[in-house]
Design a protein that fits this description.
Layout: E1 2-4, E2 8-12, E3 17-20, E4 23-27, E5 32-36, E6 41-44, E7 47-51, E8 55-60, E9 64-67, E10 70-76, E11 81-84, E12 87-91, E13 95-101, E14 106-108, E15 113-117, E16 120-126, E17 131-134, E18 138-142, E19 146-152, E20 159-162, E21 165-168, E22 174-179
Parallel strand pairs: 1-4, 2-5, 3-6, 4-7, 5-8, 6-9, 7-10, 8-11, 9-12, 10-13, 11-14, 12-15, 13-16, 14-17, 15-18, 16-19, 17-20, 18-21, 19-22
Length: 180
C-alpha cells in the first residue's frame, strides 16, 4: 500500500482492527500518518514507512498499537509517536527507527503505557526530547529490549520525565545516549 498526501494516512476508530502483514508507505500527510482512536487495535507485523509529513503515529483513547515488525519514521515536521491511550507494545522482533524528527521521538501522556519487550528502538536526530513521559505514564524496557537515542539537540534531553516512570527491568536493556 502506498499513500501520498492528504490529511491522514490511515485512521482506525470505534473498535476497528487493522493488521499489517505487508508493506505500507505513507508520505507527506498533513496531520498524522497513522491515527489510532477509540478502542481500536492496530498491529504491524511487517513494514511501515512514514516519511516527510507531520506527526507519524498518534494513538489515543483506549486504543492499542502493537509492533512486531519494522516501523521507519523519517523527516517529520512533527513528532514520532504520541501516546495518549491504553498502550503501545514493541514486542520481540519489533524495530522502531526514528530519524530527523522535528519534535519528540516518543511522547507518552496521561497514565498510558509503552512496553518495549525485546524490541529495538532507535531515535536519531530529534530537535526535542528523545522520549518524554508525563502524568503517571509508564515506559517499560524489559528483557532483551534495546534503546538507542542519539543526536538530540544540545539543550534537550534524551529522556525527560514530568510525572512519568521509566523502568529498565533488571538492567535488561541497553540504553545508549548522546547529544549533538
Amino acid at each position: 500500500i502506498s499513500i501520498q498526501g492528504g490529511w491522514f494516512g490511515i485512521i482506525t476508530n470505534d473498535d476497528a482492527s487493522f493488521l499489517n502483514d505487508g508493506e505500507i508507505t505513507i508520505k507527506n500527510t498533513i496531520f498524522n500518518g497513522i491515527r489510532n482512536l477509540g478502542q481500536s487495535n492496530f498491529t504491524n507485523n511487517n513494514f511501515i514507512n512514514i516519511l516527510e509529513g507531520s506527526q507519524a503515529i498518534i494513538t489515543r483513547d483506549s486504543s492499542l498499537f502493537t509492533n512486531t515488525g519494522n516501523l521507519h519514521l523519517e523527516a517529520l515536521d512533527g513528532g514520532g509517536i504520541l501516546i495518549n491511550s491504553k498502550s503501545v507494545l514493541n514486542n520481540a522482533g519489533g524495530e522502531i527507527l526514528m530519524n530527523q524528527i522535528d519534535n519528540r521521538g516518543i511522547l507518552a501522556l496521561d497514565q498510558t503505557r509503552f512496553e518495549n519487550s525485546g524490541g529495538t528502538i532507535r531515535i536519531i536526530d530529534t530537535k526535542d526530547d528523545g522520549i518524554e513521559l508525563r502524568n503517571s505514564c509508564n515506559f517499560n524496557n524489559t528483557q532483551g529490549g534495546l534503546i538507542y537515542i542519539d543526536s538530540v539537540d544540545i539543550d534537550r534531553r534524551a529522556i525527560e520525565m514530568n510525572g512519568g516512570n521509566f523502568f529498565n527491568d533488571r538492567c535488561s536493556g541497553i540504553i545508549n545516549l548522546s547529544n549533538r
